Amino acid sequence: MKKFIIILAAMLTTACAGGPGALGGGEDKFTAAYVNAHIVVGKTTQEEVKALYGVPDKSSQSSSSRTSWNYKKHGPLYALSDLVSAAPGSVPGVVSADSALNSAKDASSASGKLNKVMDKSSGNTAVKGDNLSIDFDKNNKVTNWFLY
Fold it and tell me: Where is the signal peptide (predicted)?
């Protein structure tokens, strides 16, 4: 039981520390400006992308040796919440951790909606997204990316 609580606390700390989908601080890694500044087609490697965004939420490969990685802005927070929700109800602290994660998800969602309203009302046309897909060639270099 203590081991579960320690692992949960470590995962929660990591999810809130600034990786993709983190709730607090730092530059938004899901804007076209950020991606353009950090990912260069034909030059940036998979390792460099992993250093920026972490392990992808989803990866796929085609018969032509093209690999695609997909990131969700709120991926770690939502994955952690799903894990905690699946934990047995008999583990003390899980109910309160689940409640805290759901509150964090709600706050993150409300913040995102508020930002969209503010951008629209101010005329901000900067490209932002909640998902990032990055394609790599057989040499593990970026061939293109899509922000949506």
Answer: 1-17
Given CA atoms 60, 66, 70, 76 in this order, what sign does their dihedral have? positive
Average pLDDT of the residues of the chain: 73
Question: What distance in Å separates the CA atoms of residue 110 and residue 62, rounded to the nearest whole number?
Answer: 37
Domain assignment present for residue 72? The answer is: yes
Given this model, what pLDDT does residue 15 score?
46
- Does 19 fall in a domain? no
User: pLDDT digits over 32-80, tens only?
Assistant: 999 999 999 999 999 999 999 999 999 999 998 899 999 999 865 445 5
Residue 49's domain comprises 32-85+102-147
Give mean pLDDT, residues 118-132.
Answer: 68
Task: Round to whole Å and give the CA distance between 27 and 37.
Answer: 12
Residue 91 lies in a domain: no
What is the mean pLDDT of the segment spanning 115-121?
A: 55
DSSP states along 46-90: HHHHHHHH-S-SEEEE-TTS-EEEEEETTHHHHHHHHHHHHS-TT
Does 93 map to a domain? no
